[in-house]
Amino acid sequence: MRKRIAIVIFVFALCGALTATRASAQVTTGKTITVKRKTVKPPKVKMDTFKGEVIRMNTVSIIVRDPKNSYVVRTFTFSQALAKKLQKLIDQGGYQSGDHVTIKYARGTEVAQTIKGKASKGF
After folding, report:
1. Alpha-carbon distance 33 to 115, whole Å?
2. Separation CA 121–CA 99 (nearest Å)
3. Which helix or strand (DSSP H or E) is residue 16 part of?
4. Residue 60: which residues within 8 A CB-CB, separation 6 or more?
5. How far apart are the C-alpha atoms of 122 and 24, rounded to whole Å?
6. This prediction's pTM
7. What is the pLDDT of residues 1-14, one digit of tens each?
C-alpha cells in the first residue's frame, strides 16, 4: 500500500515538473504598458463680498458693520499680500469710523483678500 502511494506521489511530482518547464518557455511579445497619472487640480476658491461701514481698523484687522442691519458686525483679518498693500494707508491713518468699504474674502473664512473704498482723512 505504501509503495502505491509513493508511486502516485512520484507520478504527480513528475507531471508537475514537466508542466513547469513548458510555462517557462513562453516569450513576451509586447511592450509594457505605462499608465499616466491624472493630475488633480486644487478646487477653485470661491470669493464672497461684504459691503459695510467701518467701525474700527488697526494694523491686523478691520471691524465692519452691515449698513442695512446694524446687528451684523464682522471682523476681518488681512492676508499677507493685503497687509503689505495697506501699510501706506495705515501709516496715513487707515479707514476711519463711518467709511464705506467693500471687502472680498474667501468663502468660509474671515481673511480679507481685497478692500475697496475711499478712506477719509486721518486724525
Report:
1. 53
2. 10
3. helix 2-24
4. 77, 78, 83
5. 88
6. 0.63
7. 777 787 878 777 77
**Do 68 and 80 contact (CB within 8 A), yes or no?**
no
**What domains are defined for the chain?**
47-116 (2.40.50.140)
Tell me what pLDDT residue 71 has. 94
Distance (Å) of CA 45 to CA 38, 42, 67, 109, 114: 21, 9, 27, 11, 14
C-alpha cell recorded at residue 63: 471691524
Q: Judge contact between 62 and 103, C-beta under 8 A.
A: yes
54 vs 18: CA distance, rounded Å: 89
